[in-house]
Amino acid sequence: METLSKNKIKWIRSLRMKKNRDSEQLFIVEGEKMVQELVNNHSDLIECVVSTDKTISFNHSTFLADVQSMGQISSLKTPNRLLAVVKIRPKKSKNAKFILALDGIQDPGNMGTILRTADWFGVDEVICSKNTVDIHNPKVVQASMGSLFRIPINYCNLHEYLSKSDLTIYGALLTGESIYTKTVQKEGVIVMGNEGNGISEEIKELVQTSIHIPRFGESESLNVAVATGIVLSEFSRG
Amino acid sequence: METLSKNKIKWIRSLRMKKNRDSEQLFIVEGEKMVQELVNNHSDLIECVVSTDKTISFNHSTFLADVQSMGQISSLKTPNRLLAVVKIRPKKSKNAKFILALDGIQDPGNMGTILRTADWFGVDEVICSKNTVDIHNPKVVQASMGSLFRIPINYCNLHEYLSKSDLTIYGALLTGESIYTKTVQKEGVIVMGNEGNGISEEIKELVQTSIHIPRFGESESLNVAVATGIVLSEFSRG
Q1: What is the model's pTM?
Q2: E strands along B31-134, which residues?
Q3: What's the number of CA atoms in the CB half-sphere (13 Å) around residue A232?
Q4: So what's the architecture of B98-237 in CATH?
Q5: Which of residues 97-156 of B touch A (CB under 8 A)?
Q6: Second label for A188, Cα 20 to 30 Å away, from A110, B26, B36, B58?
Q7: A217 — contact with chain B (CB < 8 Å)?
Q8: What is the pLDDT of residues B164-209, one digit of tens each?
């Protein structure tokens, strides 16, 4: 196994930045479980693997790193013993009818959790506004727990996308109808807004059915990943 | 306004550790919104305030800090201009009937989000097993968005507590009945388990009604804060 060189360390570290991920069309995946899953299910996506354990071998270009080098390339507080550099490949969705649209989600942890939740509830496709955090950000990848590789996710001009859609456009808004009384079916585009500001004014105009989660206590708001989970659950429960 | 001394910096930094928070019965609250809310609603809890802005004045012992000193005492990536040292004071609950029990939640972000969610759905009290992350951990305080000050939260031997409870004990378990078909009312103790391992064996035995959130897609699991939100929503929707 080849030892991880300083140049390779520099190259992998550079992928922490979106502009480098975009130009190289590569991103970083960490953790034994996710790397193993990739090797098993999406082998063709792997550019190379870095391991701190020389007994682990793959049919891929694999570099041996000491704990210190792994620490340099890892975004985790406690670096794992496996890391992979993976190819970005857009997944096309066919005939998506249950779509989650994200309008400016900023926090990578929230974004990853939203993808994981969307995957649990069988969302066909996730559409992101251009100012939504990059799904290949290392923290998003980590929090998504592999869901990133399963759901089609696309970035676009959300206003344009929604304007053209034939599906009902639902939006989570404070002024909306209670999701407990509104009858919903598992078809449509559900728009969730930014952590601090909710759905932007421009997108709000396109929402056909406003929905909201009733409050029984005193919190000012719900975390957006939690709210997404509750809304998707309501659409799924039938 | 007195300038924040090196000794005070050291003292505030020491409150990042649970053992020091426990012995001093003090913890740190950051951010303009939360500090202002504390000043307005729980003024008696404030030990002192640290500000980087000398134009902000309070009826409390206030220290002026430069941006660098604030950075030293802050747990935030982007330190805010206000920080308060706050007294720990247990809140007693009376006649709690809608209780959330946490069995070993580890992640501070999840914990804070769970408190915020419990507060949204009007949970009367949160009971935590002793191995659940400390609610006065700076990251929990931050993610709870003030809910920490509104809900009674108590740590105890969870097994003993549940054994003595007269309320129905619900547990979120993979083997449980679908929350969409099981009729639930807003009364009982709802147990949510650890991020990786779920509810511990010891506590599982005390669960009277197992419930689970049906899966429609491929995620292996839901984030525990999202799952808590969905379960609390089901209990609340009536």
Answers
A1: 0.94
A2: 46-51, 62-64, 82-87, 98-103, 125-129
A3: 34
A4: 3-Layer(aba) Sandwich (3.40)
A5: 109, 113, 116-123, 143, 145-147, 150-151
A6: A110
A7: yes
A8: 999 999 999 988 999 999 888 899 999 999 999 999 999 999 999 9
